[in-house]
TrEMBL record:
It is found in: Endoplasmic reticulum membrane; Microsome membrane. Belongs to the cytochrome P450 family. This is Cytochrome P450 2W1. GO terms for molecular function: heme binding; iron ion binding; oxidoreductase activity, acting on paired donors, with incorporation or reduction of molecular oxygen, reduced flavin or flavoprotein as one donor, and incorporation of one atom of oxygen. Its cofactor is heme. Keywords: Endoplasmic reticulum, Heme, Iron, Membrane, Metal-binding, Microsome, Monooxygenase, Oxidoreductase.
């Protein structure tokens, strides 16, 4: 497949639009034109709440429904819920966490993320003629193809069942647009581009938020005083029997600061390679069109001149002397510019709602026999996203 076609497609799809706008724009078929952005965000909130309810209502078990309260379980358990939100958006259905398609996709995403970080893959990128020596890129392409096979099935089903008056998913919206688009000379919404767009979201819109949530829980275990302060704030702002709303973050400066600090501290996605789309002069250097550029978000997120204690987990980075939340210019985990993260608003909302929902119900503690100091904040191996070491947590119910 021609990569420029994929880029063009994504660019066209998302250009100048927030992700939701683009979904809504695509989905604004004959009957849904009256639906406002607010309604869609509301629906999304309901989806997220449903996810939380689905997980906590299965108590005395936790998220996966088979973990006993207070007993240790793996941090990766937290991957399920954020991943399911993105899948629900893409495919129009929420998966059961044991659904074979769901578990297969989770496994494939995991393998792709590990392979993307493989040093052999980087070597192959720089010296493709040595490809016969390496295997990582071949396995990577195979795993991506496996994901494509699943996506193709969803597109096929969408084409069969699509109802222009009720588009249920991003896939439906793209298929709808494809039909509209056949009249145009350039068929941007061809099948290859549809698959590429969905694949991009499957990869970029799952592991990222999910891993951040894992880190958030790990950091709360590591810093119980901070966890307690968050829980106290939740207790002050959120009425018993209710979940926090995204709007509540304005009244929850400490919680908001903690979530921002999690994102800053973990520098989740430090290097996303891009290439110059035109000949570029930058700080005395000439970068011809097509030059690979790898920005370093770490250099900003851990910059000494911007952060008081860059290598320490310190929510005060986002609080003023009165405890009010302060925005920081150097906070850019979603990057900047025209190709910045299109899922930023979704990710922020998910992180806030999941994090507050979890801490409203549970206190997270290291497993028996371990203390906070035993918890490991180093990154295990090279993966595309910087993940925490595989570790266990215990969820102790509040009340
Ligand atoms: C904590 C969560 C997330 C973080 C930290 C994050 C961060 C990033 C970063 C740094 C980039 C590269 C931007 C650039 O090169 O300038 C990116 C790209 C992207 N993100 Fe996210 N992201 C997150 C969640 C999401 C979610 C939830 C979605 C969608 C549902 C998403 C979809 C994408 C897509 C499609 C791209 C590629 C955009 C393009 O190629 O133009 N991300 N993200």
């Amino acid at each position: 497949m021609d990569p420029t076609v994929i880029t063009l497609s994504l660019h066209e799809l998302f250009l100048g639009l927030d992700f939701y706008d683009s979904v809504i724009d695509l989905a604004s078929g004959p009957c849904s034109t009256s639906e406002s952005l607010a309604t869609d965000l509301h629906l999304l909130l309901r989806t997220i709440r449903f996810q939380l309810l689905a997980s906590t209502r299965t108590c005395p078990c936790f998220i996966l429904g088979f973990i006993h309260l207070g007993e240790p379980f793996i941090l990766r358990t937290f991957n399920t819920a954020p991943t399911n939100i993105t899948f629900a958006l893409l495919f129009g259905e929420r998966f059961d966490y044991k659904d074979p398609i769901f578990t297969t996709l989770l496994r494939l995403i995991d393998e792709v993320m590990c392979l993307l970080g493989s040093p052999f893959l980087h070597l192959f990128n720089f010296y493709p003629f040595l490809g016969f020596l390496f295997n990582a890129h071949k396995i990577l392409l195979k795993r991506i193809e496996d994901v494509r096979i699943i996506i193709r099935e969803y597109i096929k089903t969408s084409k069969q069942d699509i109802n222009a008056n009720s588009l249920k998913s991003y896939t439906d919206a793209l298929v709808f647009k494809q039909r509209e688009d056949t009249t145009k000379r350039e068929n941007l919404f061809n099948d290859d581009n549809l698959i590429a767009s969905i694949l991009d979201l499957v990869m970029a819109g799952t592991e990222t938020t999910a891993t951040t949530l894992q880190w958030a829980v790990l950091l709360m275990m590591k810093y119980p005083k901070i966890q307690k302060k968050v829980q106290e704030e939740i207790g002050r702002v959120v009425k018993p029997g209710h979940w926090a709303t995204y709007d509540d973050r304005k009244d929850m400066p400490y919680t908001n600061a903690v979530i921002h600090e999690v994102q800053r501290f973990i520098t989740l996605l430090p290097h996303v390679p891009r290439s110059t789309s035109a000949d570029t002069h930058f700080r005395g250097y000439f970068l011809p069109k097509g030059t690979m550029v790898i920005p370093s978000l770490t250099s900003v997120l851990l910059d000494r001149s911007h952060w008081e204690t860059p290598h320490e987990f310190n929510p005060n980075h986002f609080l003023d002397a009165d405890g009010k939340f302060v925005k920081k210019e150097a906070f850019m985990p979603f990057s900047l510019g025209r190709r910045n993260c299109i899922g930023e608003s979704l990710a922020k909302m998910e992180l806030f709602l999941f994090f507050t929902g979890l801490l409203q119900k549970f206190t997270f503690q290291p497993p028996p026999g371990l203390t906070e100091t035993d918890l490991d904040l180093t990154v295990p191996k090279t993966t595309f996203t910087l993940r925490p070491q595989p570790q266990l947590t215990c969820a102790i119910p509040l009340e």
